[in-house]
Amino acid sequence: MSQTMIKVDRRDGKLAMAHLYVAFIALALGGLAGLLQTLVRSGRFELPLGIDYYQVLTTHGVLLGLVLTTFFIMGFQFAAVSRTSGTFTKKARIAGWIGFVVMTVGTIMTTIMILLNEASVLYTFYAPLQAHALFYLGLTLVIVGSWIGGGAMIANYVRWRKANPGKPSPILTFMTVINMLMWFVATLGVAVSVLFQLLPWSLGWIDTVNVLVTRTLFWYFGHPLVYFWLLPAYMAWYVIIPKVIGGKMFSDSMARLSFILFLLFSIPVGLHHQLTEPGIDAFWKYIQVVLTFLVVIPSLMTAFSLFANFEMFGRSKGATGLFGWFKMLPWKDARFVVPFIGMIAFIPGGAGGIINASFQMNQVVHNTIWVTGHFHLTVATAVILTFFGITYWLVPHLTGRVLTKAMNQLAIIQGIVWGVGMLIMSSAMHIAGLLGAPRRSSFSTYGDAPQAIDWIPYQVAQAIGGSILFLGIILMIIIFINLTFFAPKGEEEFPVAEVADKAERTPMVFENWKIWVTILVALILIAYTVPIMEMIQDGPPGSKGFKLW
Ligand code: HAS
């Protein structure tokens, strides 16, 4: 390992690791709930001890979709900011720890309420399903904690900018800032819904809520939420993978531009989750469908950039022909192979997203298990395998250990097991969805439907895929424990690629936040003002207006 290897400060490393511990505990528990769910849906298994299907589904969605992702992302970003723009100040690090504690307390509260069957409202917690007030309070704490942690990251960025006037900030820090800005703006929606509607309603302070407004505020948050998951994976794809394969970044400017586009277009698109919902004028749905197609562009740019990276690297090694570069990629390195499986999955995952977003076509797939298939390819494969790929070097880097040959081998097996399990489970979900199999339903509610005969074999296939995936989770936990506590001591690199020599200079306009935040606010106001006003004005009696009490 090179003498000049830049290490994450040990104290910042501890903060990052604390987040990863919670993330991997959530993976183990949430994964178990996922296994139970696929078994129940197959109709071949009944939950013991009076456990309810929706309780298990909520555990799965909240622990994996909200807890694992948020904790992993915060931990990774703390490490990335510390690595690229310098150690956190004492104050910022303390803020980071406060944020962590607040998030963890919130997570414990939420999880207990779900396990007590007091909050079987799924991860979307749609009204009129109602949860115990502590569930909503717990989720609020998770969000507030992430704001505090995000504030610490932004403070480090501001400090770097002051010390380096006129220079573009380190790209991983820049990307973190974009992800956190998007998160701040997005979480405002869910915070308003929880604090002014769901929580007072659950406490009995108000009798009714405006269901449509709460759902709309959820999706105002819910779509950027999926990009909050995706962008850290893109950080790895743009900046880390090129270094892992031994190459350089194709273009720094293009990576930054794609992140700016995500910031602008991730939020004003939430209505594409509500295309079949009455009470929202088709015109506004159409506007948001158009904006959704704009948010596809930065992903297409990312695909282009990845191919360019791979090809540039392959040709530098003497590859010829259209696909000669493919053979040159490091197929024995888990840090590359595992995220690469994620990239492959993102091609059908993204295509499925485009189908979902295609307005009328959405009617075919909405509320079927097709949608579950879509997000298992995107978040549960593309994103999560990239997070696993990051874990394979980040954890040893932070714990002062190394990824041994044996663990590297096991990690590749883990990635393949995941890929195979997901291929089976998600293909079955897509097909069953097209045959009409509902989403969010247990066998006992759909098993007697005459059409069920068509899709039940696919539900069984899902259980097979789900069981293979659970094996993948066990392997991942073994590797995590090894890298944290048992791997031999040593130094593992935190890979950050340099930019290719021929790339254009990065323009400073990318860091002119006044421009981007103004456009962002304008787009949100255009996309949401009228529909929300209409929902409030035309709200059903009893929930008229967004009144408090
Ligand atoms: Fe989605 C529903 C539309 C992306 C997650 N989505 C969901 C839900 C989740 C989710 C969790 O319009 C369910 C929510 C719920 O509980 O109800 N989604 C899209 C669109 C995109 C998209 C247009 N989704 C994601 C990502 C997610 C995610 C990313 C998580 C991380 N989604 C929808 C819609 C719904 C929806 C509707 C509502 C459905 C309904 O009716 O309820 C786009 O962002 C996708 C763009 C992606 C691409 C792919 C680019 C490919 C790349 C890889 C290149 C590979 C290489 C390697 C280079 C265009 C970058 C290859 C090498 C070789 C050698 C081949």
Automatic annotation (TrEMBL):
<keyword id="KW-0349">Heme</keyword>
<keyword id="KW-0812">Transmembrane</keyword>
<dbReference type="Pfam" id="PF00115">
    <property type="entry name" value="COX1"/>
</dbReference>
<feature type="transmembrane region" description="Helical">
    <location>
        <begin position="253"/>
        <end position="271"/>
    </location>
</feature>
<feature type="transmembrane region" description="Helical">
    <location>
        <begin position="336"/>
        <end position="355"/>
    </location>
</feature>
<feature type="transmembrane region" description="Helical">
    <location>
        <begin position="456"/>
        <end position="481"/>
    </location>
</feature>
<feature type="domain" description="Cytochrome oxidase subunit I profile">
    <location>
        <begin position="14"/>
        <end position="485"/>
    </location>
</feature>
<keyword id="KW-0472">Membrane</keyword>
<feature type="transmembrane region" description="Helical">
    <location>
        <begin position="60"/>
        <end position="82"/>
    </location>
</feature>
<feature type="transmembrane region" description="Helical">
    <location>
        <begin position="20"/>
        <end position="40"/>
    </location>
</feature>
<feature type="transmembrane region" description="Helical">
    <location>
        <begin position="283"/>
        <end position="307"/>
    </location>
</feature>
<feature type="transmembrane region" description="Helical">
    <location>
        <begin position="94"/>
        <end position="115"/>
    </location>
</feature>
<feature type="transmembrane region" description="Helical">
    <location>
        <begin position="375"/>
        <end position="395"/>
    </location>
</feature>
<keyword id="KW-0813">Transport</keyword>
<dbReference type="InterPro" id="IPR000883">
    <property type="entry name" value="Cyt_C_Oxase_1"/>
</dbReference>
<keyword id="KW-0249">Electron transport</keyword>
<feature type="transmembrane region" description="Helical">
    <location>
        <begin position="416"/>
        <end position="436"/>
    </location>
</feature>
<dbReference type="InterPro" id="IPR033943">
    <property type="entry name" value="Ba3-like_Oxidase_I"/>
</dbReference>
<keyword id="KW-0479">Metal-binding</keyword>
<dbReference type="InterPro" id="IPR036927">
    <property type="entry name" value="Cyt_c_oxase-like_su1_sf"/>
</dbReference>
<dbReference type="InterPro" id="IPR023616">
    <property type="entry name" value="Cyt_c_oxase-like_su1_dom"/>
</dbReference>
<feature type="transmembrane region" description="Helical">
    <location>
        <begin position="135"/>
        <end position="158"/>
    </location>
</feature>
<protein>
    <submittedName>
        <fullName>Cytochrome c oxidase subunit 1</fullName>
    </submittedName>
</protein>
<comment type="similarity">
    <text>Belongs to the heme-copper respiratory oxidase family.</text>
</comment>
<keyword id="KW-0679">Respiratory chain</keyword>
<feature type="transmembrane region" description="Helical">
    <location>
        <begin position="170"/>
        <end position="198"/>
    </location>
</feature>
<dbReference type="InterPro" id="IPR023615">
    <property type="entry name" value="Cyt_c_Oxase_su1_BS"/>
</dbReference>
<keyword id="KW-0408">Iron</keyword>
<keyword id="KW-1133">Transmembrane helix</keyword>
<feature type="transmembrane region" description="Helical">
    <location>
        <begin position="515"/>
        <end position="533"/>
    </location>
</feature>
<feature type="transmembrane region" description="Helical">
    <location>
        <begin position="218"/>
        <end position="241"/>
    </location>
</feature>
